[in-house]
Structure formats: structure tokens, C-alpha cells
Amino acid sequence: MPRDGGESVEWLCRLEELDGRVSRIRDSCLCPETQREVTDELGFPVRDWGYRLSDQVLDCERAE
User: Fold this and answer.
1) Distance between CA 5 and CA 41 in Å, rounded?
2) Its pTM surpasses 0.70
3) How far apart are the C-alpha atoms of 13 and 35, rounded to whole Å?
């Protein structure tokens, strides 16, 4: 996501497939530990939202 003059990972989802179809979606946007572990391994910067969406994040998303 481009934000504040740079890019970072803000949302992390894992899709699992069974017989060519999506069977499960695991959303890790509110799990900063998982986000940091994955982005550190891949070498990407991360901007986590903590454990819940703040009013500031929700306002920012609504504005875009």
C-alpha cells in the first residue's frame, strides 16, 4: 500500500485451496506478530494496525 511517501504491507491474507477452489481465507490484518514474521522473512516493510482497527485507520480507508 502506498502511504506517507512510501510503500508497506498493511494487509495479509492466506488463501487455502482444495480441488482448485478457495477453501479457506485466513486474514491476519489484526495480528501484528504474524504480519511482522511474514514481512521480515520476505524483506518487506510493514505497517501494522495493532489488534483492532482504530478510528484513524477507518477514517483513512473511508477517504480513499
Assistant:
1) 23
2) no
3) 10
